[in-house]
Amino acid sequence: MVFSLLTAYLIWDNNPIEKTIQPRKVFIPTPVKKYIEMDGGTFDVSITVFITKDTSLVREYSSTMDFNSSACTADEDGVIMVWFPSYPSQDLLTHEMTHVNEFILHDVGVPHSEDTDEVYAYEMGYLIKEFYKKTKHD
């Protein structure tokens, strides 16, 4: 951080033509929160999404998670949890949110069929949008 700020200062300070130029903005990433809480939109459900390589926190809440995979989703007594070791790619996010969607709609008694396909599609869209909103990702 000091090096980046010093670099921005030197870029600004060594400009003899225009001393009024503002220093360049330096991007300093903020630490990633280890988990986020989501809701099920229309459905009254709580979803916890862990984004961490440190599985000890996840193990406190789940006894069924499989940490030998690239991600995992579990439904333990109506509590839905998702684990990603790092920020997921779009295809991995979609894969895991499909499991979340299935858990939610199964728990409320909506079978996946041709007649309920729109319910599944809308809920899937909500889950993906909610994840991106909670993680401040476009």
Tally the helices.
4
Distance between the termini: 26 Å
Give a count of the beta strands, DSSP E runs of length 2 or more.
4
* Structural shape: globular
Order of helices and strands: HEEHEEHH
Instruction: Please state the CA-atom Rg, rounded to the nearest Å.
Output: 21 Å
Low-confidence stretches: 1-32
Please indicate the count of domains.
Answer: 2
What's the average pLDDT?
Answer: 78
Strand line-up of the largest beta sheet: 1-2-4-3
Main beta sheet: strand number and arrangement? Answer: 4 strands, mixed
Residues in helix, %: 25-40%
Structural class: alpha+beta
Strand content: 15-25%
Summarize the SSE layout with pairings:
Elements: H1 2-13, E1 35-40, E2 43-51, H2 55-61, E3 72-76, E4 79-84, H3 90-107, H4 117-134
Parallel strand pairs: 2-4
Antiparallel strand pairs: 1-2, 3-4
Helix pairs in contact: 3-4
